[in-house]
Amino acid sequence: MEIYDEHSRRHADIYAVYDEQCQREGVVDFAELLLRTYELLTRNEILRGHYQSRFRHILVDEFQDTNRLQYRWLKLLAGYGASGPEAGVQPASVFGVGDDDQSIYGFRGANVGNMADFERDFRVQSVIRLEQNYRSHGHILAAANALISHNRKRLGKNLWTAAAEGEPLRIYEAQSDGYEAAWLVEEVQSLFHEGIARRDMAVLYRSNAQSRVLEHALFSAGIAYRVYGGLRFFERMEVKHALAYLRLIANTEDDGAFLRVVNFPVRGIGARSIDALQDAAKAGGTSLYAAVPKVAGKAGGTLASFVRMLDALRTETQNLPLPEVVEHTLARSGLIEHYRAEREGADRVENLEELANAAAAFVQEEEANDLAAFLAHASLESGENQAGEGSDALQLMTAHSAKGLEFHAVFVTGLEEGLFPHEQSVLENDGLEEERRLMYVAITRARTRLYLSFAQTRLLHGQTRYNVASRFIEEIPAGITRWLTARMGAGRFDAPSWPAAAETIASKPAAAKASSSDYRIGQSVTHPKFGQGVIVNTEGSGTDARLQINFGRQGMKWLALEYAKLTPA
After folding, report:
1. ∠ at Cα 55 (54, 60), nearest 5°?
2. What secondary structure does DSSP assign to 508-562, as a single string?
3. Which of 98, 164, 242, 431 could be bridged to 425 by S-S, CB 3.0 to 4.6 A?
């Protein structure tokens, strides 16, 4: 078969080299094992007949996660050809269990269409739909049903529960990702004070890089948390590599950082070269960096090239703002290029780009453009603060990692077009439908409380993005939702018909209720949490009165006058 696409041709060439090496070494990987078994059963009728008669009853669980090769392998083993049972073969009894609405592993080759093909190819007489749900309250299931109904390619089912309808879904619109994280911290604390254990709350996000802002807010608030199925942001391998380069810019005497990246990305510096360098450093009582000129030969030349790169980095970044120091280091070190070339390096690239965002946030919060201070901050956040297995800690995870789990309260964050659904989904065949299935999985993790949040602006890939709310929010019926914020104009949806305060901190009304006539635009006021601010807008009257106040570093906030506890400054 001739391949016309250059990208596909290169993949074919790489596979040919890989296959040749496997043949030479006499090894196979799992995918190749399946392929060779399939080819053997196809060619050898006697062997195929033996196994067809041996396995009379076959159970396939998680059917929605099977790929095309596995499905063809199943048909051969069960005695089914292209148009039905093979001639002269008593087909096996096959029992398939799966949920096509939870097929979220297309990037691994899973083909959701296998379930529909199974019903047709195996001439299934009875499809049993297990639609009663024993986990979630009614409103949560209603949201899941409404959302997934927008997918065209599905077998169809409608979840229901004998439990109560429960509470409405809560939707929060934040001005930025930082405000979204601050709100989440307050809501988690409120739920905890209500008696809900932190381990029974989960925060879900579409990509790993989103956890950095959330982790920072939780760390600052002293809330124990655990990154389920992954590492804290500053503990991720690619981030630690980047921090090592930054540490060498700040301090050439850092031998730990030097050893971590001297040959990463690979630059031909092997173990013998490192041994020679360490011997030279020990003999001279110097750092590894300072000992490089004492290493002779080819090893010395390669090490010297690495040191020259570090020296150039230090010179080039000397007067740059901290975020640009990070960006330049990522590019000059070769880390970005290295991970972009990896087959599954997209997440790692996103994490590296998020490190530049972390530097920008540090400069803004600390009002300092100090690399050493930023590295100390990163070291502090990457310390032994993550809660261990079994402790009462808030659970952070990607929506993919949440499959199969359940929690009392679930926060689905970052619900913005281009983020969730992911911007790549519109470029892929049926990509948007898989994103919707992923959202379906996220929603159905909640037992009693479900929060959906999005931000008007978010730092992504080193740039501030101005966002539109995810279409998935629009696909949930308005009658089962409750907005925790007044609409601020970033989304595609109409404002709710009831008034809602931008801050959801529960507090008792003051003994003497304030009146909107007591406040005016331009007036200075003080809030017990946010400090001093200036009123920039007002709306409503009586118990519906709200004020928009600029609290400086705390940001712009809409407060319900009845609950705000404001005092004139």
Report:
1. 165
2. PPPSS---GGG--TT-EEEETTTEEEEEEEEE--GGG-EEEEE-GGG-EEEEEHH
3. 431
What local confidence, expressed as pLDDT, does residue 24 receive? Answer: 86
> What is the rounded CA–CA span in Å between residue 569 and residue 564?
14
Query: How far apart are alpha carbons 17 and 28 in whole angstroms?
Result: 14
Q: For the chain, how far is it from start to end, CA to CA, in angstroms?
A: 78
Distance between CA atoms of residues 458 and 154, nearest Å: 33
Structure tokens at 425: 């989904």
Q: At a CB cut-off of 8 Å and minimum separation 6, what does 392 contact?
A: 197, 198, 199, 224
One of 2.40.10.170, 3.40.640.10, 3.20.20.70, 2.40.10.120 is the CATH number of 516-568, namely 2.40.10.170
132 DSSP 8-state letter: B
Low-confidence residues of the chain: pLDDT under 70: 1-5, 7, 83, 383-390, 461-462, 487-517, 540-544, 553-555, 562-563
Listing DSSP states for 416-446 in one string gives: BTBBTTBGGGGGSTTHHHHHHHHHHHHHTTE
For domain 169-230+386-483, give the fold.
Rossmann fold (3.40.50)
Distances (CA, A) of 61 to 58, 94, 95: 10, 11, 8
Helix or strand run (H / E) with residue 454: strand 446-460
Q: Considering Cα of 285, then 287, then 289, then 290, what sign does the dihedral take?
A: negative
pLDDT confidence of residue 4: 61
Q: Give the predicted TM-score (pTM) of the model.
A: 0.74
CA dihedral 64, 69, 71, 76 (to 10 degrees): -170
Residues 141, 135: Cα–Cα separation, whole Å: 9
Query: Do the domains 235-381 and 169-230+386-483 match in fold?
Result: no
What's the confidence (pLDDT) of residue 390? Answer: 59
User: Residue 190 is encoded by which pair of tokens?
Assistant: 């409120």
> Where do the domains of the chain lie?
6-121, 169-230+386-483, 235-381, 516-568
Decide: 519 and 525 in contact? Cβ < 8 Å: yes
> What pLDDT is recorded for position 517?
67
**What CA–CA distance (Å, rounded) separates 543 from 539?**
11
User: Which residue, 368, 365, 318, 327, is CA-closest to 349?
Assistant: 327
Helices (H) and strands (E) in the chain, counts: 20, 17
Half-sphere exposure of 116 (CA within 13 A, CB side): 11
Q: What is the pLDDT of residues 435-473, one digit of tens each?
A: 999 999 999 999 999 999 999 999 876 678 888 999 999
Three-state DSSP class for 41?
helix
| Overall residue count recorded for the chain in this entry | 569
Categorise residue 414: left if φ over 0, alpha if ψ from -120 to 50, beta otherwise. left
Q: Which CATH superfamily is domain 235-381 in?
A: PCRA; domain 4 (1.10.486.10)
